[in-house]
Design goal:
14 strands, single chain, alpha/beta, globular, 11 helices, two-stranded antiparallel sheet, about 375 residues
């Protein structure tokens, strides 16, 4: 076969493959959600004159075609294998394997975001918490525990210093030294509830409610799961296990969700069939919930401004309070808080992870 014929055959084969992929993609129903990546996939873009003129239609279509490509998950796994095993890169999409744990690079420190977060917290304090004792704590992400000789990470000390400098009139409860990498799930961003006793002891001591927590816990593994980093890195690792710490107090407590106006338990086992198994803790992300403990000391109330890390931590505070209210200003406007909560003499705790503080544009 001559070189000219070979070139024709190769070109024709390449074009045929492209056409086949195009036709198959056209005939395949679009997928709405990538369960592996925990996100919605781009859908066919709406064609408008404005998008045609400003060039955004091409960008939207490019995102759509990438998200809806057939065998997309297989190609993602192939890419990850090439990046890590063939080209010997340390990370893929800023996620890497360290001491058998999947970790995401959090870098650099976003000082503008930290300033925005503290401004939001200060505004809440000025609007609702005048004269009240307020505490805050910061949950380190997994990247904090990794050697800086191997991977870059944000300046955590500077973050703490900025928070301390900007949050006047609040007491900081440091918990970085209460944790280690093994206290977090291997495949997920979150910490393990069963490993949080040191954190509970530190916070309860500082906030003077340790003497109201006496009950031992029964721990129960309820399901195996693969966390968000498994899908994002597209490699297989050992599975994690969701373990709940329960007792009579927790079992008898009720949770009211203001968004869907439903009452559930602290551990909502219906969520074990959802994509994110961590949602078993307080039913997952939601703007506003209250935990009512009928056996709690009358008048002892706690208000927690939080992100998802508090979902597994706060249940361990249940015994100390008759009522705990959790507010998530990523889903609820700060100016609306007063419509639902009457602030008087409650204990106040702000608890946010370094990841959320470094991306505080989500605060409303």
């Amino acid at each position: 076969m001559s070189d000219k014929t070979k070139n024709v055959v190769v070109t024709f084969t390449f074009l045929l493959v492209l056409v086949l992929f195009f036709v198959i993609n056209l005939c395949t129903k679009d997928i709405e959600i990538s369960y592996a990546e925990r996100r919605k996939l781009a859908q066919f873009p709406k064609i408008t004159v404005k998008k045609l003129l400003d060039g955004s239609l091409g960008q939207d279509f490019d995102k759509y075609s990438t998200d809806q490509m057939i065998k997309r998950e297989d190609f993602r796994k192939l890419k990850a294998a090439l990046e890590l095993d063939v080209f010997r890169k340390k990370d893929n999409h800023d996620i890497y394997l360290y001491q058998d744990s999947l970790v995401k690079i959090e870098y650099p420190l976003n000082e503008v975001s930290i300033a925005n977060a503290t401004n939001k917290i200060n505004a809440i304090q000025n609007d609702y918490l005048q004269g009240m004792k307020c505490y805050y704590t910061i949950v380190p992400d997994k990247n904090y525990f990794v050697s800086r000789e191997e991977y870059i990470g944000m300046d955590y000390e500077k973050m703490e210093a900025m928070m301390t400098q900007n949050l006047k009139g609040m007491e900081y409860i440091p918990i970085f030294d209460c944790l280690q990498l093994q206290d977090y799930y291997v495949t997920d961003i979150h910490w393990k509830q069963e490993n949080l006793q040191k954190v509970v002891d530190r916070i309860s001591t500082k906030m003077n409610f340790k003497d109201r927590i006496h009950t031992d816990y029964t721990r129960q593994v309820v399901i195996e799961f693969e966390g968000v980093y498994t899908g994002q890195l597209a490699v297989k690792t050992a599975k994690d296990k969701i373990c709940i710490s329960t007792n009579e107090i927790i079992e008898n407590a009720t949770v009211y969700n203001y968004e869907n106006k439903k009452e559930t338990k602290i551990y909502n086992k219906e969520k074990l069939t959802s994509n994110d198994k961590y949602d078993i803790y307080l039913s997952g992300p939601t703007p506003l919930i209250t935990i009512t403990n009928p056996k709690g000391e009358e008048g002892k109330e706690l208000v927690v401004f939080r992100d998802s890390f508090a979902s597994s931590l706060v249940p361990l505070f249940t015994e100390a309070y008759s009522k705990i209210t959790l507010v998530d200003i990523r889903y609820m406007r700060s100016k609306d808080i007063g419509n639902y909560i009457e602030f008087k003499d409650q204990d106040i705790l702000f608890i946010y992870s370094t990841t959320v503080l470094n991306n505080s544009s989500t605060f409303k």
